[in-house]
Design brief:
Largest sheet: 7 strands, mixed
Number of helices: 12
Shape: globular
CATH superfamily of the largest domain: Medium-chain alcohol dehydrogenases, catalytic domain
Structural class: alpha/beta
CATH class of the largest domain: Alpha Beta
Number of domains: 2
Distance between the termini: 10 Å
Oligomer: single chain
CATH architecture of the largest domain: Alpha-Beta Complex
Helix content: 25-40%
Number of strands: 16
Strand content: 15-25%
CATH topology of the largest domain: Quinone Oxidoreductase, Chain A, domain 1
Length: 349
């Protein structure tokens, strides 16, 4: 089969590799119908070269082609979503809906249970093996298209988790850092949860214009003072909540700075450089709640899927580019360079 493979720094290629097979009785093999390029894929795209090759991608869905003898919840021919994080479904963490911390799948260390890595071949391909299929595959309703549900595999639950961790609710003022795909879903999640004011922070005026159309207050910190504008919008109090959806150490500090005493801060961006958190003066001194984590789609898919079915949530609004798998390398280049007003690239194998 064809697959987009990591070969090193900015060296991704469409290669021919062996077809996936059932290795364990709890496995399933999925023929992939749609996949996408995620912002976190760019961390590998930009990262240093390593002497390894593997298939990229952790946002994908398709049709079950084969199942192991112990698989019970899905069967051949089922149309399914694949969770980006892999849980066994049985350990203490999975039973608490924290599959990102699965004791079985993270035995090698944190963040080792995500598709698109040397340990777990990804879904930017024509097919993929899914371990513990009963815990990580979800049926797609016949009434919904692939594109309507594709982002339930990662970025839609990630954005929604951000506002959940920040305890965004009716009447709250929330500052969301980033208007990319994850930030967009955090904005939509905040609006669905009844936030009185969603302040969208970004340096890209085009993305801010889209945020304003969906009901947010746009704020470009290169043009106005972030802190002063938030105070102005909150009568001098500061925001109730903030969400960092970019993965930038400085923005983590800004997210802490803009909330009022007793506020809630969540970080869902993949921050690769640890910020020095002002624990005493800011977090403790302001009695803040600070939360972060890797997404657990298994927890949020059952909550978000009905919102899509009812028409209250349309995830397809973020799709700007549709390409074939063979065009995927060009898709990475466009996404990396922020060309052509790109927001989300969806690939069809």
């Amino acid at each position: 089969m064809r697959a987009i493979r990591y070969h090193g720094h900015k060296d991704f290629r469409v290669d021919h590799v062996d077809d996936p097979k059932v290795n364990d009785p709890t496995d399933a093999v999925v023929r992939i119908e749609r996949t996408a390029i995620c912002g976190s894929d760019l961390h590998l795209y930009h990262g240093p070269s390593a002497p390894m090759e593997f298939t990229m991608g952790h946002e994908f869905l398709g049709v079950v082609e084969d199942v192991g003898a112990d698989v019970r919840r899905v069967k051949r021919g089922d149309r399914v979503l694949v969770s980006c994080t892999i849980g066994c479904g049985h350990c203490a963490a999975c039973q608490r809906q924290l599959c990102s911390g699965c004791e079985v799948m993270t035995a090698a260390g944190p963040l080792t249970n995500i598709f698109g890595s040397p340990l777990h071949q990804g879904g930017q391909a024509e097919g993929a093996r899914v371990p513990f299929a009963d815990a990580n595959l979800f049926a797609v309703p016949e009434s919904l298209t692939d594109e309507q549900v594709l982002f339930l595999t990662d970025i839609l639950p990630t954005g929604y988790m951000g506002v959940d961790l920040a305890e965004v609710g009716p009447g709250k003022v929330v500052v969301i850092f980033g208007s990319g795909p994850v930030g967009t879903f955090a904005q939509l999640g905040a609006l669905l949860r009844g936030a009185a004011c969603v302040i969208a922070v970004d340096l890209d005026d085009g993305r801010l214009a889209k945020a304003e159309k969906r009901g947010c207050v746009p704020l470009n910190p290169s043009k106005v003072s972030l802190k002063e504008r938030v105070l102005e919008l909150t009568h001098g109090l500061g925001a109730d909540c903030s969400v960092e959806a970019v993965g930038n150490a400085k923005l983590v500090l800004d997210a802490i700075d803009v909330v009022r005493p007793g506020g809630h801060v969540s970080v869902i961006g993949v921050v690769q450089e640890d910020p020095t958190i002002p624990l005493l003066n800011q977090v403790m001194g302001k009695n803040l709640t600070f939360r972060s984590g890797i997404v657990n789609p298994q927890r949020y898919i059952p909550e978000l899927l009905p919102l899509i079915e009812s028409g209250r949530l349309d995830p397809t609004e973020i799709i700007t580019h549709r390409m074939t798998l063979d065009e995927g390398i060009k898709g990475y280049e466009i996404f990396d360079a922020h060309e052509d007003d790109v927001l989300k690239v969806v690939l069809t194998p």
